[in-house]
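Example record

The entry below shows one chain as it appears in the dataset: sequence first, then structure tokens.
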Amino acid sequence: MGESKTRTIVTYVVGIIIPVVVGLVSSALTSGNMMIFAELNKPPMSPPAWLFPVAWTVLYVLMGIASARVVLIKGDDSKKLLVIYVLQLIFNFFWCIFFFNLSNYWLAAAWLLVMWILVFMFTFISRKVDRIACICFVPYVIWCTFAMYLNIGVASLN
């Protein structure tokens, strides 16, 4: 295998591992509060609990693919996208803490709004840089929009 192909494979593997690990750590830090969440009043169309880890796993893999594609592309837009990517990942991690551990649903909603803006920015900017990276983030934008509905619903009902 050539050096370039090895670099590409390593970039994709690391790209996928990073958000998955962020998700696993976040999940581990909040798992003790899932029983509290189960008891909350939730808005209509709230999915069953099993769907959340499945959806997030898929989203983390897609995030990783998008980030790897951006890393492999050189240029100013690539650097800008990587900064936005890291910021949204930080916001993603701390949203769980605010929502599940602190039960501060309105702060979590405000935090999620900033995260949604970052995710949307990544999607919007990446459409010019790498179409596949952009497509990988579209389900994330949709999920974050739905998560905002759920977050505001929980904040309003509890």
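Notes for this example: The chain has six helices and no strands. The two ends are 56 Å apart (CA to CA).
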